[in-house]
Amino acid sequence: MTTPVLQVSDLTTTFWTPEGDVHAVSDVSFHIDRGETLGIVGESGSGKSQIFMSVMGLLARNGRASGSVRVTGEEILGVPLNRLNQVRGARMSMIFQDPMTSLNPYLTVRRQMTEVLMTHRGMNESAAAKAAIDMLDRVQIPEAGRRIGMYPHEFSGGMRQRVMIAMALLCGPELLIADEPTTALDVTVQAQILDLLMQLKRDTGMAIALITHDLGVIAGLADRVMVMYGGRVVEEASARDTFKRPQHPYTEGLLKSMPRLDEHGVKRLETIGGQPPNLQDLPGGCTFHPRCRYAVARCAVERPLLRQTDTGRAKACHLDHLGDVA
Ligand code: SF4
């Protein structure tokens, strides 16, 4: 058996606030193999981003993560910052919805990119500049040799996103974490960026964690899908099975809330009733029960554990099949 690029076990992330603890992530375990794309889906507040902020060691000061995070077999949760910095950037990197989260507005792209290569790869300035221009070419920035001297604000939104991707890929990471990488972009640019990510994955064999609230972004890109709700994994399956035959009521609700055409060519959109749970005061039993159309009495008192249903599939629901009464 090969070692996964990322193995997360029993990860729990809590934020301290004066109003009480916020349980952002509870007992989450999963892995991502080399060359694999895992889609992580859920509404905002489902814990999907905080899993990866924990993995990257980027939690806010009031956050604490426990459990285990292994990158190509090496435990990195709780290691000293200098060791974590060697892993970040070199073996795993993260891109965000807003490129300005990773780019410094006061420095040229050249300065920012060459510094990364000089620090992590020990290159001299001219070799680093050449490698940076090559990477900008690779993410399809026209006239990379000239544009590398520009500041981030001089690029359009889509181009800035490409610059951020180029920065993230500079050291050839084995894992790229993409957190809502296209949410702020218009639809055409969105498709270009997603195509680019998949092409880079094919070329490099890197693993991708694609975090999104939009199942449409996952379709066709992810190999497996992990659905989060209230800080827990509620369903995990291949992308094909997730779209064809969701087994958890929440996944089914997310799929139904994707815009689609009915037989008359009319756009229909169903929504999941109610609000996402308050992470400071999670409901007892199944966290989804106040919103679940299949809920029965047992759901309000007994939390369903994540259990294997078929090969490679798991769900946290008392029902064996949607529509059954527990
Ligand atoms: Fe719905 Fe009950 Fe399943 Fe939770 S355990 S998803 S409330 S049917």
How would you describe the overall organization of this protein?
It is a single chain. The chain has helices spanning 48-56, 81-87, 109-121, 125-138, 144-147, 157-169, 187-204, 215-218, 239-244, 249-256, and strands at 6-15, 22-32, 37-41, 63-71, 74-75, 92-95, 175-179, 207-212, 224-229, 232-238, 260-261, 267-268, 307-308, 314-315. It has 326 residues and is of the alpha/beta class. The protein has a single domain, classed as Rossmann fold. The strands form 3 sheets. The chain has an 8-stranded mixed beta sheet, with helices on both faces. A 4-stranded antiparallel beta sheet has the order 2-1-4-5, with helices on one face. Strand 11 (260-261) and strand 12 form a beta hairpin. Helix 4 (125-138) crosses helix 6 and helix 6 runs parallel beside helix 7 (187-204). The longest helix has 18 residues, at 187-204. It is globular. The two termini are 37 Å apart. The mean pLDDT is 91. The structure holds iron/sulfur cluster. Iron/sulfur cluster is lined by residues 249, 286, 288-289, 292, 294-295, 299, 304, 317-319. The site of iron/sulfur cluster (SF4) has 12 residues, from loops.
